[in-house]
Structures are given as C-alpha cells and as structure tokens.
Amino acid sequence: xxxxxxxxxxxxxxxxxxxxxxxxxxxxxxxxxxxxxxxxxxxxxxxxxxxxxxxxxxxxxxxxxxxxxxxxxxxxxxxxxxxxxxxxxxxxxxxxxxxxxxxxxxxxxxxxxxxxxxxxxxxxxxxxxxxxxxxxxxxxxxxxxxxxxxxxxxxxxxxxxxxxxxxxxxxxxxxxxxxxxxxxxxxxxxxxxxxxxxxxxxxxxxxxxxxxxxxxxxxxxxxxxxxxxxxxxxxxxxxxxxxxxxxxxxxxxxxxxxxxxxxxxxxxxxxxxxxxxxxxxxxxxxxxxxxxxxxxxxxxxxxxxxxxxxxxxxxxxxxxxxxxxxxxxxxxxxxxxxxxxxxxxxx
Length: 347
Fold this sequence. Notes:
This protein is mostly helical. 71% of the residues lie in helices and 1% in strands. The protein has helices spanning 9-35, 50-66, 75-104, 114-121, 136-151, 153-171, 186-203, 209-229, 236-254, 263-270, 272-292, 295-336, and strands at residues 2-3, 6-7. Strands 1-2 form a two-stranded antiparallel ribbon.
C-alpha cells in the first residue's frame, strides 16, 4: 500500500491484526455454542474489538489515499469501480457456496428466503447469509458516501455532515429511532472516525507515537478485562473505537518513516479481505470435520480450537493466492484497460 512515496508498513500489520481478532471472536463464539468452551469467556463477548479496529483502519486508509482526488473528474467512478471489483466477486462466490451447502446439507442451515438472498447479495442486510460478513454493509455504505464526496465535494459535504450529526444524535438516543439499520449504526460512524484520524495525521505531527499506541493497547486490555469479569456495563463499541483512533494516530506517525516488517505480516495484511470473507465458512467446515472424526475428544477443546484457527487462516490465505488476487487482477484489466492487448515479448 503506497500513497505518494509513503509505504503503510505498520498500517498493513494493523489490517491483519484486526481481521485475525475478528476471526478469534467468531471461532470462540462457535466453540462456546457447540461445546460450551471458549477462551476468557470470549464466546459471550459481543465484540472483541477486531471489527471496530477494522472499521477505523478502513476509514483511515481510504481517506489518506484518496482525499486529494475529491472533485477530480472521473476519480469517483474509478474509486467505486475498484471497490466493487474488490468486494463483490469474492463475497458473491462464498455467499453462493453457503447457499449451495445449505441445500446439499440441510442440517447446516437454511433454507433461505429469496428476500434474504437478494438483500445479502446486495449487502443490504445486517444479518446476511454469510453471517461473519455482517459489517460489510457498513463498509459498502461508507464507500457510497465517499464516492459522493469524491464526485461533488462541495455539494455532498453538508449532506454527509448532516448524516453524521443525525447518526450521532440517534446513537445518543436524543432522537428516537427504532430501526436497526447500517444507515444509522455506530459502526458506520467508526469508519468516519477513521477518516478523521487520517485527516489529523495528515495535518499534525505527534511526538509521542509510542505512548499513543501504548494507551490504545492498554485501553483494549482494560475492556477485555472488564468483559471477562463483568465489572461494569459499558458500550464496548464506543470505547473500542476511541482506543482504536488513539492507536491509529500512533501507528500512522510511525509509518511516516519507511519501516521493514516481516513478510508474513505484510502478506496477511494483503490477504485480510479473503480472511474476512472466507473465514466463517471455513470455521464451520473444520469444526464439523473435527466433530465427525471424533477428533475433538482426541485433541481436547484447547488444541481443537487452535487447529481450527490455523487451518482456517491457511485456507483463507490460499483463497487470496488462488482466487482473490488473480480474479481482482483480471477484472481490473478488463474494466480499466479493455482495449489493451499483450503480445509475447511486448509489454
């Protein structure tokens, strides 16, 4: 990932960590549901904070990389086409595979109504067929808002600001609003706060970036300790978001200098979308296999959970290598360079 001459090394790691924490939360929820076993009561947590960090990182990267293109003719179309190419083909593929699995193996899930299928395919549902991708509707909604900002910034800035204010008032319960929708959810605001973090990073320098990261990590740890022990009732997404922003400011400051990071972490950052989309089906698949082969008893719950995590990460990385990467490359060439031909020996 690069903007101008800047490489996002630590931000790349952040993407990987965020998605892996999403996976960790989901696998613990599945083990608690199936076997009444989890790590640190994680199966009963509403969120691990991974998705909140993912939202903030998403908003940060998009704003940092594309904000200078606002108002430039053609850039809004280019941006949304790139997002569509990146998001929908792989998402549709795994949604259709999930539907097919429910037909072949009715005991897994389903049947699904046509209404749910259509809403899921269009990322309009907050409870889609591919359940682990519920947050994708928030991300797509943000992309639409950002496309409008790129297209006509002066016209859409007041509209976007009004939506932000309206959504904040709803989440503070100042304005009564009963519908559970990604249009007015706090999760959508978290992505916007990621944009705010990028704006601050672009315009200010922080001397204490390490302290900022430490405060953010300590905040997360405090939330997790509270989740484990249930000391007080808190709105965890709000606190996760706040500490994610603090961490993001520190991480982005570190990234103002070129950094070398382990290739495996950089790769996991690249593969983060495949991990996000495909990890749910693979978690279900490997848990089912372990149950059918009675390996849960042989390995024990602890090592069974580790086995499922490792196999799922490996499988989703293979999805990135074998499916997402070549498919995205092909679609970009078809969409953006339809008349370009490559001849042998000529680039």
